[in-house]
Amino acid sequence: MLQNTPTCQRSKIHIVQLCTLCNIGHRIADMSTESHTDPTGSHSDPTLSHREAKRIRTHRAIEAAATQQVLERGFHEVTVDEICAPVGISRRTFFNYFNSKEEAVLGTGHRELSEEEVQAFCSQQHANLPASTLSLLVSLILDPNRDSLFDAATEARRKSICEQEPAFIRHQIARFHGAREAVTEAVSEYFAHFPQARRTQESAEDEARALTGVVFSAVMSAMQSAKHSGNLTPAHLRATSSRMLQATIDLLQA
Prior knowledge:
The chain is mainly alpha-helical. The protein has a domain at 7-39 and 109-152 and 159-253. 68% of the residues lie in helices and 0% in strands. It has helices at 7-19, 21-27, 50-73, 80-87, 91-97, 101-106, 115-122, 129-141, 152-164, 166-193, 204-229, 234-253. Helix 9 (152-164) crosses helix 10 (166-193). The longest helix has 28 residues, at 166-193.
């Protein structure tokens, strides 16, 4: 699709696509189970408590108000108070949901890797370390606990905002790479526990960085494939990431 596009324009397109991956990747709900009567692009979960359902509605309403106003007027022209007004909440409530205006506009990014998860990853030897590394990375980007927060219109506005503001693109890319760095550190620690799992003469840190880089590339390829297919559900992205990782390994071993 981009073969006839100038190189500089192709680069810009790829960067814009990447800038939304962190948000879209971990927050896409399964569209096949959505209610067609819900314009926000999500479905109601009857198992949710009233309190949890209200929390989700408020979270999504704040993001909708933030992205609408920033897209119309620009990031620096919109205040937190102006975001709160149409939602009917106070500044205090706003900061119970988001750490900053920027977070409400761009999304919360990938979740953090906990010490418990690192310990669990390093507690036993993995028969297929690349696959286990992929699972760890994908769990940060495609956190299933955030699927209910997805709103199709909000994500579309975020993409438009990133297209207008190059600084936001760089910020989003940096956040996305934060997940990669966290996983790299976990793999490096794993090698310290299981040095026999190493496959190169490089330092443990460099081998961990190389392995995570291959896995990261597989996820990027899966995201691009999913965009072309139109299927961005978490299950599809996970399955495609696994296939892309295996394809990458096959190519490197050919």
